[in-house]
Amino acid sequence: MKKEEYITFVNNNYNGSAKELILKQIDLFYDDKEEIPYHKYEIGEEVILNKGTYLHGISGELDNFTWIVNNGFIGNDFTNQSVNNKIKSSIGMWNIQQDMSLLDYIKLYSGFTITYTIGRGPGSKEISDLIPYHQFDSYTEKLNNREDVWMYWGDQTKEVRFLPSLVADKRQIAFILNMDSDYAKKLTYADVWNCDLDSETLKYFLDYRYYDKFLEERHNRNASTTDRETAIIFGLPARLIEGVFVGRKIENNQEALTYIKEQLPNCYICNLDGKVIVGNK
Q1: pLDDT 10s per residue in the chain (281 long)?
Q2: Quick one: CA torsion of 63, 68, 71, 76, rounded to 10 degrees?
Q3: How many CA atoms lie within 13 A of 249 on its CB side?
Q4: What is the DSSP pairing of strand 54-58 with strand 173-177?
Q5: Is the whole model's pTM more than 0.90, yes or no?
Q6: At what angle do helices 3-13 and 16-29 cross, to 10 degrees?
Q7: Rounded to an integer, what distance in angstroms lies between the CA atom of residue 139 and that of residue 232?
Q8: 129, CA 20 to 30 Å: which among 33, 66, 107, 190?
């Protein structure tokens, strides 16, 4: 769809402050005046993720990749795709919470989410933590030896379902988006998780069965809910992509790597070791 078609769709399906917010976001999406910064890497260098960097994984392989390169990251509700998401009319991103290496991030989310209770019964408190890859046993041993911990349980991290990881091959491609520019920061205001958005506006962006729970969660986010998620209303342009992060299958497919580089010549490609395998210097 073209910009005018998206505007028509929004005018026909949204009202009030929600409509105004989406229309403003569409204008920003198509504003290509500002130059976007890129990190430059040579083959073998370690990728560093700045705080605020976004990552977005895709299902499939090069079919979805090509669509995003040509159209940008756009919420399913605007592309006629029937997907029953709890958060609607937006595109989900993983938001890096502190400066760190890509490898450290991969190890962290390839691990486990554990929740434990301090105390028992009324007045007990739940705490959630991310346990890095292969550190589950040592972490739970510490919990078992604590007198104040009553019980604990764990879950797969959500990133394992949506990004290339050390424990699953289901996802093979993720995009790394540079969000350092003033332009990018304007786009990030329209985040469903933004606590400045009023509850009435949010009704357009949440499944009604999740609405009340979400209003509570967004003010009390933790490693379980999760505190790394961002949902940008309407979407983000492809020109924010600075790198492509691939799983082992794509890493060992030279034809696929060549195709990715042809489609995004200014971007680097990196692997599960957090290292650049195709540079952009």
Answers
A1: 899 999 999 999 999 999 999 999 999 999 998 889 999 999 999 999 999 999 999 988 788 899 999 999 999 999 876 667 899 999 999 999 999 999 999 999 999 999 999 999 888 999 999 999 999 999 999 999 999 999 999 999 999 999 999 999 999 999 999 999 999 999 999 999 999 999 999 999 999 899 999 998 898 899 988 899 999 999 999 999 999 999 999 999 999 999 999 999 999 999 999 999 999 99
A2: 90
A3: 11
A4: antiparallel
A5: yes
A6: 170
A7: 34
A8: 190
CA atoms of 270 and 45, how far apart (whole Å)? 9
A 10 A CB-CB count for 196 gives: 7
Q: Which two tokens stand for residue 149?
A: 């911990």
Q: Which of 235, 246, 243, 247 is nearest to 264 (CA)?
A: 243
For position 1, what pLDDT does the model report?
Answer: 81
Q: Could you give the CA distance from residue 202 to residue 211 in angstroms, rounded to a whole number?
A: 8
How far are the Cα atoms of 46, 125, 224 from residue 115, in angstroms, in the given order? Answer: 32, 10, 8
Tokens of 15: 């009202």
What's the per-residue H, E or C state across the chain?
A: CCHHHHHHHHHHHCCHHHHHHHHHHHHHHCCCCCCCCCCCCCCCCECEECCCCEEEEECCCHHHHHHHHHHCEECHHHCCCCCCCCECCEEEEEECCCCEEHHHHHHHHCCEEEEEEECCCCCCEEEEEEECCCCHHHHHHHHHCCCCEEEEEEECCHHHHHCCCCCCCCCCEEEEECCCCHHHHHHHCCECCCCCCCHHHHHHHECCCCHHHHHHHCCCCCCCCCCCEEEEECEECHHHEEEEEECHHHHCCHHHHHHHHHHCCCCEEECCCCEEEECCC
Any bridge partners for residue 48, and if so which? 101
Residue 98 main-chain phi, psi, to 5 deg: -160, 160
